[in-house]
Amino acid sequence: MDAKNNVLFDLIKSLTKTEKRFIKLNAQFHQGDKAYLKLFDAIEKQKKYDEKEILEQFKTEKFIIQFSVAKNYLQNFILKQLRNYHTESKANIICKNLLIDIEILYWKNQFKLAEKLVKKAEKIAREYQFFLTLEELSNWENRIDNAQLRLNVKHSKTISNKHENNIKNYQAILEYKALINETQLLIKESEVIRDKNELDTYKKLLNHPLIKEKSNSNSYEATYSYYVLNSVLHRLIKDQKKSGEYRAKLVDYLEQFPHINKENSIHYLSSVHNLLMHSLVVKDYKSFANYLDKVKNFKISSAREQSAVLDMLCLFELGYYNETKQYDKAIEFVNEIFETHSNIKSILNSEHYYLVHYHTALAYFNIGDYKNALVWINKVINLTSKNLRVDIKAATYVLNIITHYELSNFILLPYLVKTTLDFLKNSKMLRPIDKFFISIFSNISATSNQQQKALFFNKKLCSIKKLKLEESIISDIDYMDWLARKAT
Predict the structure, then answer these.
(1) 437 and 461 both lie in a single domain
(2) Fewer CB within 10 A of the terminal residue: the chain, N end or C end?
(3) Domain range holding 477?
(4) Cα 386 to Cα 24: distance, rounded to the nearest angstrom
(5) What is the pTM (predicted TM-score) of this model?
(6) Average pLDDT over residues 309-321
(7) CA distances for 437 relative to 21, 264, 442, 476, angstroms
(8) Is 388 helix (H, G, I), strand (E, B) or coil?
């Protein structure tokens, strides 16, 4: 069985050394058979999950008769120990534990202590703007008052005001979340606006009241969403100036809340991600270097943060090397990343994993190492998924055609041209300049000598210059530059 399909294997492999030590120490205090510890050790030693090997290893043990029960017991034991280990690690976890204590105390008629914990939790929840937790605490406050027959007009009004404020703030957050989800679904298909309908959709979003003007809720989450939406939507319609302004404002705003950034570092890392992207697009390499240093110096304290940081390094450091034509450094960077992180596929999100392969293919292509370029192109094509953006796939298919030409694989070109044009058409990405350039490769003769090919490409270059065409859908490949080099 693949490790990808086994949650217990993945859970054990995700544990840090200190977490493992904590789990094993606490296991010693448990009465009865410790067979589940043997199972823990056996799974921990495996590089890939192999259930047959485990069953063979423990064939004489009693727990093997109900192996699924044993696995489930071990999983629950690990989760329980992780709850204990991380009980003070996040403000949100502290609040959740206090809520459990409050409920236990309520049912034991220990109302004074329960009230004390409500106030303690409320102070933390207000500081971190946990509006749903605040709402739950208000409910407990009301229940404790009722249980002691203390509810009066003043108490009732105070609790009602709390309810109203909590709901108003959380409602604003939900409305922004809906807009973010709508935008993400559009981007997931393609980050390139392919036709007027898509452009109109983005402009309509920009005119939404919550995007035009910030919500009355001044909460951290709502304000974060407001800046994110404006920065992303303005980038998509190619208003880079406004996009950059919103991105910078977002980082300035977040840096006013270091305690919340520590609680949810992904928001802060995402804001730096957005500024890295903007700096690269507008070629502000000085700012890019500063933001990249922030990422490199970020203190990682969780697997989730490690994924976010590695995501950004792979995406932007590699992108920067290609953008500035430092192709050897790009290749060196990728080799080091894959060597250092053997589990990189499980760390990066699928889109960024795809992009790493594409940018590596691009680096090899640009230094003229077409054989290695094709190796990475094939990896990208083999990774093709319905969930991945069509603009990345389109760029890969075009790069694939040019690479096969450079390798003199002329017999494949007509088929590759046809399938690529069909894909672009079906994906609403077939622009006249792309159609013109791609179609060139269906007319190249394998028998032509170098002089004939140079004349052929020179004619095509003259023709493409005369055409008044919009920009290519493929931003990483300069058609005219490539044709000019082939025409000499």
Answers:
(1) yes
(2) C
(3) 389-488
(4) 42
(5) 0.80
(6) 90
(7) 61, 47, 10, 14
(8) coil
Distance CA 113, CA 102 (A): 8
Say whether pLDDT at 341 is over 90.
Answer: no
390-406 vs 350-366: helix axis angle to the nearest 10?
Answer: 30
Q: Report the residue count for the chain.
A: 488
Averaged pLDDT of the chain: 89
The two three-digit tokens of residue 371, written as one number: 């054989």
pLDDT for 352-396, tens place per residue? Answer: 888 899 999 999 999 999 999 999 999 888 876 566 778 888 899
**End-of-domain residue from the set 107, 132, 151:** 151
Residue with tokens 């290893």: 57
The 3-class secondary structure across 153-222, one letter per residue, is HHHHHHHHHHHHHHHHHHHHHHHHHHHHHHHHHHHHHCCCCCCHHHHHHHHHHHCCHHHHCCCCCCCHHH
Considering the domain architecture, whether residues 78 and 95 belong to the same structural domain is answered as no
Domains of the chain: total: 3
Residues with Cβ within 8 Å of residue 121, at least 6 apart in sequence = 94, 95, 98, 99, 102, 133, 137
The answer to the question of residue 241 being in a domain is: no
Asked whether residue 106 falls in the same domain as residue 32, the answer is no
Q: How confident is residue 21, by pLDDT bands cut at 50, 70 and 90?
A: very high
Residues 66 and 141 in one domain: no
